[in-house]
Design brief:
With 538 residues, the chain is an alpha/beta fold. It folds into two domains: 412 residues, no CATH class; 76 residues, 2-Layer Sandwich (Transcription Regulator spoIIAA), CATH 3.30.750.24. It is 60% helix and 6% strand. The strands form three sheets. A four-stranded mixed sheet has the order 3-4-6-8. It has a two-stranded antiparallel sheet with strand order 1-2. The chain has a two-stranded parallel sheet with strand order 5-7. The longest helix is centred in the N-terminal third of the chain and has 30 residues. The protein is elongated, with a radius of gyration of 28 Å.
Length: 538
């Protein structure tokens, strides 16, 4: 057993497991799941090609670097991952960091050295149990993230469906690099419609809707694959009926074509280690490692929620594997990788059951790049837009909104804020805003619901306050409000014998109240509390 296997074994403290509809815990057998995983991998591969190229373009990096990271995310990370359904690859959320880093460091090879260091940091995060952060993502925020991604898929793909392909495929940010935003891009697309693109995208959408309504036994070929094949056929056939329906090359996938092994070798790049002599390179590496880790953990949590079998992947293992992926990607000229939600959602929607779909899609990327790039370059963006729009509809169904509404204000408001914030900023910023709102609701809830019960008073001479099992610093305000309202000559007892945990801040406040009680002529005592000594200044 080599060192990497030992690390992964240590981090696999909660292996992914399936709970079948009849209640049995039973992982789907990879030998049996290939009938679902192979078709799903083809769909993810077709979606991944333009996304990998688009993110590389948006990052200011060589186009082939996006393909390299897609292959590594599929083959290496997919093989070692503990997640059965999450797809790893270049992430749109990292493109702004990558572009700024390349500009700051002066070259792409210099940036590659930073990617390697970021990967090492991710492995260290995992060994330090950094994956525990995933347990602190509120369910309302995760559901808001899924709904927002669905809406983003629809809104961002509308221009591509209309033939307006000026923004890179895979953009998830509200403000685009071409000085447009999500809504102005749609408005501009309406003014520059390509009829052929509209025909291809509408045909694909109608086919996908109709395909899902057929009996399952009839659907021997995945609907998204058919939609893409129809798009390729339509691209070739439509001009035969009307030459004006010929789509230009800017409306097609544009994969780099290498005509020889020498040209293929020139597509790879290698790190310039001298960049690490500069302090700012280490700062970029830390930023990159943290953001990539957070995006991965968010995607992992969302993927677990979408999984119909409710498997939970070990987060520490995932961080370590992602780190290994970034180390390899940086060594051979790829972009940084992380878990990617759009491709993961499409993977689940395509019916994948195990991580073999992720591995197969990486293999297909490698094979296609080396042996069939010209064939892939016949795929219209409009056909892929139909697939992604349909996936977006499935992610943002009104039933989710009704479910969150029925769960009350504390769940619905963070959910809604997360959706709106992601739509108007980007995935990471929107999630952080949603989590901040969720935290504020927790604080307000603590203020509304005191950490104590008044078990005697009114007609009794002695007012007895019994503290609850858990008392945190968030509860200090409600306790202070009650004690401050006590009239002079009150007899009061605080009973902490039932407390299992009480923050030092609260104990210190109660200790300080002893002095306040003397000044206000209040007879004050405590039971079951170990209070700090009275400050000498008192």
């Amino acid at each position: 057993m080599n060192w990497s296997e030992l690390v992964l074994q240590r981090l696999s403290n909660s292996p992914a497991q399936v709970v079948t509809p009849d209640g049995r815990a039973d992982d789907p057998s990879m030998a049996d799941s290939w009938r679902s995983d192979v078709p799903a991998s083809i769909i993810i591969f077709l979606v991944a090609v333009p996304l990998c190229l688009g993110i590389a373009l948006a990052s200011g990096a060589p186009l082939f670097s996006g393909i390299i990271s897609g292959i590594i995310g599929g083959v290496l990370v997919g093989s070692l991952s503990g997640s059965p359904l999450m797809i790893t690859g270049p992430a749109a959320g990292l493109s702004a960091i990558v572009m700024a880093a390349i500009d700051s460091l002066g070259s792409f090879p210099a940036f590659l050295s930073v990617v390697v260091v970021a990967g090492v940091l991710q492995v260290l995060f995992a060994l330090g149990r950094g994956g525990i952060v995933a347990y602190y993502f509120p369910s309302s925020v995760v559901r808001g993230m899924l709904t927002a991604i669905g809406l983003i898929l629809i809104l961002k793909q509308i221009p591509h469906a209309l033939g307006y392909d000026v923004d890179f495929e895979g953009d998830e940010s509200f403000f685009q690099a071409n000085a447009e935003n999500t809504f102005t891009a749609i408005a501009n697309a309406i003014g520059r419609i390509e009829p052929a693109a509209v025909i291809l995208s509408l045909t694909g959408l109608v086919m996908l809707v109709a395909w899902d309504r057929l009996p399952k036994t009839w659907r021997v070929v995945p609907g998204p694959l058919l939609a893409v094949l129809l798009g390729v056929i339509g691209y070739e056939v439509l001009p035969l009926f009307d030459p004006s329906l010929q789509l230009g090359p800017e409306h097609l996938v544009a994969l780099p074509v290498a005509r020889s092994l020498t040209e293929m070798g020139q597509l790879f790049a290698f790190p310039d280690w001298t960049a690490l002599l500069h302090l700012n390179a280490w700062g970029i590496a830390v930023t990159l490692g943290l953001v990539a880790s957070l995006e991965t953990l968010l995607t992992l949590e969302a993927t677990d929620k979408m999984d119909r079998y409710k498997r939970e992947a070990p987060s520490d293992r995932e961080l370590a594997v992602q780190g290994l992926g970034n180390i390899m990607s940086g060594l051979i000229g790829g972009l940084p990788v992380s878990g990617v939600l759009v491709r993961s959602a499409a993977n689940i929607d395509a019916g994948a059951q195990t991580k073999l779909s992720a591995v197969y899609h990486g293999v297909l990327l490698a094979v296609a790049v080396f042996f069939a790039p010209a064939l892939l370059n016949l795929i219209p963006y409009a056909a892929l837009a139909a697939v992604l729009i349909y996936t977006g509809f499935k992610l943002s169904q009104p039933t989710t909104i009704r479910l969150m509404w029925n769960q009350g204000r504390m769940q619905f408001v963070p959910f809604l804020v997360t959706v709106v914030a992601i739509l108007l900023t980007d995935l990471l910023i929107g999630v952080l805003i949603g989590m901040a709102v969720g935290f504020l609701f927790i604080v307000f809830d603590h203020l509304r619901h005191p950490c104590f019960s008044v078990v005697s008073g009114a007609g009794s001479v002695l007012t007895r306050i019994r503290l609850h099992e858990q008392v945190t610093f968030l509860n200090k305000a409600s306790l202070a409000q009650y004690l401050d309202a006590l009239p002079p000559r009150t007899r009061i007892e605080i009973d902490g014998s039932h407390c299992r945990h009480i923050d030092h801040d609260v104990l210190e406040f109660i200790s300080d109240f002893r002095q306040t009680a003397l000044l206000r002529d209040i007879d004050f005592r405590t039971v079951g509390l170990s209070l700090p000594p009275i400050s000498p200044s008192h």
